[in-house]
Design a protein that fits this description.
Two copies of one chain form a homodimer. Helices cover about 45% and strands about 15% of the residues of chain A. In chain A, helix 5 links the parallel strand 1 and strand 2. The N and C termini of chain A lie far apart (about 80 Å). Chain A is elongated. In chain A, the strands form two sheets. A six-stranded parallel sheet of chain A has the order 2-1-3-4-5-11, sandwiched between helices. In chain A, strands 7-6-8-9-10-12 form a six-stranded mixed sheet, with helices on both faces. The C terminus of chain A is likely disordered. Chain A contains 15 helices and twelve strands. The first copy, chain A, is α/β, with parallel strands linked by helices. The interface between A and B is large, with 45 and 45 residues. Strand 2 of chain A pairs antiparallel with strand 2 of chain B, so a sheet runs across the interface. Chain A binds a DNA duplex through helix 2 and helix 4.
Amino acid sequence: MAVTLRTVAEAAGVSASTASRALHGSPLISAETRAAVERAAQELRYRPNRAARSLRSKRSQLIGLVLNNLVNASFHTIAEVVQRRLADEGYQLILSTTDADPAREEALLLTLADHGVDGIVVIGSGQSASATNGFLEEGVAVVNVIRSSRDSLAPTVLAGDRDGAYEATEHLLSLGHRRVGYIGGLLGADSGRERFRGYSDALRRHGLPVDERLVVQGPFTQRFGAEAVDELLDRRTGMTALLAANHEAVFGILPGLVARGMRIPDDLSLICYEDMPLLQMWQPAVTVVDTGASQLGELAVDLLLGQMRELRAWEKDGRPAGVEQLRKLTRTYRVGAQLVHRGSCAAPSTPSPSERQR
Amino acid sequence: MAVTLRTVAEAAGVSASTASRALHGSPLISAETRAAVERAAQELRYRPNRAARSLRSKRSQLIGLVLNNLVNASFHTIAEVVQRRLADEGYQLILSTTDADPAREEALLLTLADHGVDGIVVIGSGQSASATNGFLEEGVAVVNVIRSSRDSLAPTVLAGDRDGAYEATEHLLSLGHRRVGYIGGLLGADSGRERFRGYSDALRRHGLPVDERLVVQGPFTQRFGAEAVDELLDRRTGMTALLAANHEAVFGILPGLVARGMRIPDDLSLICYEDMPLLQMWQPAVTVVDTGASQLGELAVDLLLGQMRELRAWEKDGRPAGVEQLRKLTRTYRVGAQLVHRGSCAAPSTPSPSERQR
DNA sequence: CTGTTAGCGCATTCAC
DNA sequence: GTGAATGCGCTAACAG
């Protein structure tokens, strides 16, 4: 704390501004002065005070990351990737969780603004477009991830949910299954809606109707998963395959299936959404739709860094960052889902006579 | 950004200093002025600039959390708990990962200092005592978690590793097992050392020697776990129970056991360290030593907040925060481990004749 | 190329 | 009780 820019400047026998310029690699500095200043800084172990710099230059080297929680594998994977990449670029990450509560999200965004973050990555409710657009207008970079936001001007990185579910369903159908069950999230969530669409599209493509008796949708909880399995099995629909498109529910679905004595893949073929160690190690290992959490995080960071450069350039040009200008940023990116084949899928066994009558 | 304390002051018809005092609940302010200022602040949606406040008052409302990664369940659980608790107290969390690299840890601590954090929670290498002690001397609160640090003056929150391993081993012995295998971390790590000690102590207590053929220690990786299982099984030691005390290795141990056709608990009783969904859902569900990640996080936050109050008080008194003063903080806390009984332990089956001959 | 001058927004002396 | 003055540490005009 004791050694400030001034200390360094005095040690090097120059003024504070010269020292500042030298340390920032300004071109209008003689080689000798620069060397002298750098040496002084080194010797004194000078560390610039970020608060002061932030106050003066409106640049905090802080990036906010807003997400629901860290339990979900996709979320903590993204958090880790984003953190690492940003640290390499000299930014620190302020991480905060919202529990998917829009009110907390809103409050959080304000707090992040208070701290003068240079950018934010939001895995949000999709309801804070006005808040995040406010950031952009203030020159703060914004990237939405996983959940889109209707009126947001910021770029959005989404998973390939429709295609992933389509491909998974298609795979099951191509194995010969005709009664494919679906356990998913509520249609209020992007992922819930898109994955269900992928499922429906694939069925339709094969000339099959969407049988609502084969479909259960509910909240992102383990409990729902357990209930959904019972529900589906109790309905006696002749289901021979299941697409578990609700990640949290998987924790209820897997034990539910075991409890009901379902053998995988003999009695039921299974594909789960979002990969995690549990699914790799399950017996048999579960075929999954990998949504590419790491890639989502990487792309989000790339977009954020690019946007920060862009915003800085605009600012320099003195151009007003009006809405028309900001619209140039508005774009949706997709990280394609990947079907990872493991051991939980097989051709359906010959239906029993009673089933054949359907 | 436009509305500053000055704006509020003018709107309320007072000076900036009065506004500042009013907003901070200073006692020397008339009720009317306070009301007027508060109303103005409300109406103008005034948000204090943290950078300015930090620069002036040496208080950033930022707390640093340093840990290896977010993949490990204990780590991301702690991160989530710490984040939530601190957010409730008005602090934001700067999260950063080190990959257990002491050099990165060192650099990180400096960067956190640059940002003027009010406190740090370190799940570290134990090698940065001088750095963290430096924080304390500057009035920045420090709490070590999970890993102790020889010369650190800061309080440390540790898991009950010796006792947890002791209890687990004791449980296996009390079931009648005499050949209890052990797969653990390297002795360089606190947890590796302590858990092994618990294992040894329990054996000794039962008058059994530590048979090094039953013990494998290695790095915290999935790969090591897989190799360790093969190693142990190839040695044909007559092992009837196994304590898997290396969390990361569990991801290799479980599939390894399946691959070798070991039936749990018939052929082998198993206890794993650090609970996670995978172990709850494994077939059979695995008995574990729960290290209490949430509780570790909670306690760390409690200690951090308490320490911050204390440091502030000392500062006010103008007492020098010398080493003798700081030593009052130095104390080790333990969060007791919890043995969670599930279905992976049973009495050993009657040994085969060949085994009996040993 | 370099030094001088001015704040960024806030909290805290010191006066009254 | 309140206002005026000061400076936290730094960067960015503005002059030379």
